[in-house]
Known about the structure:
This protein has one helix at 2-34.
Amino acid sequence: MYIILGLALIGVAAQAAKLIVPIVVFGVIFLLYKFPPNTWGKRNRRTSGSARPRRSKNASFRVIDGNKDGSDEPPKYH
């Protein structure tokens, strides 16, 4: 019984050794997916209340006079 159990454990250990490499590769891919390298050096630059909010400047719109004649007829060419 001990011989069969020992051989079974050797077989399981041999299969586990073959599966370690794919498990490690998939683990590394998953970690790179969750934490991409372009975010490693960056820190969260938001501070709680000390930075003043930026205000956008309202654009001033103006009418540009065109070269069309004053009549409200449909265009000659469609």
